[in-house]
Amino acid sequence: MTLPISFRAGLAALALSLIATGALAAAADYEFQPLKVDVKKGAGSELAVRLVHKATGKPVTGAVLFRTRLDMGPDSMAEMTARHVAMPSSEPGVYRFKADLTMAGGWALRIMGKVPGEKDTVQGVVVFQAKD
Ligand SMILES: [Cu+2]
To answer: What topology does CATH give the domain 30-131?
Structure first.
């Protein structure tokens, strides 16, 4: 049996859209949340984020956060960045950083990471408020 061209094209388009939505859904299934929004202004301030799988609410352990950026975008100073380093964490699904928050105000921690068993990169932005 030969299918009409238009029907076959329709099937191909459907298959492609299923693949596309599947990929997007996977990456959007995860969320980075602040443990505590208010943090201390100054050197060595501690930031902590929890990565959760939204559908189950479960913390996601073993993620590799391969790219992070910390900037004052929330206060219209996106070009103002802060040094930060990853710290060890014993809590499941919690990822910690030490940051030099040189100014009081809103800081955005922008994260790209890989989650075990998920081929898409997971991204998130967590906003902290540095206080004197
Ligand atoms: Cu600033």
So the answer is: Immunoglobulin-like (2.60.40)
CA of 122 to the centre of ligand 1 (A): 27
Q: What is the pLDDT of residues 97-129, one digit of tens each?
A: 999 999 999 999 999 999 998 999 999 999 999
Ligand 1 centroid–CA 77 distance in Å is 5
Question: How far, in Å, CA of 132 to CA of 125, rounded?
Answer: 23
Interatomic CA distance for residues 35 and 17, integer angstroms? 36
List the chain domain ranges: 30-131
pTM of the model: 0.81
User: What's the 117 CA to ligand 1 centre distance in angstroms?
Assistant: 38
CB 80 within 8 A of CB 48: no
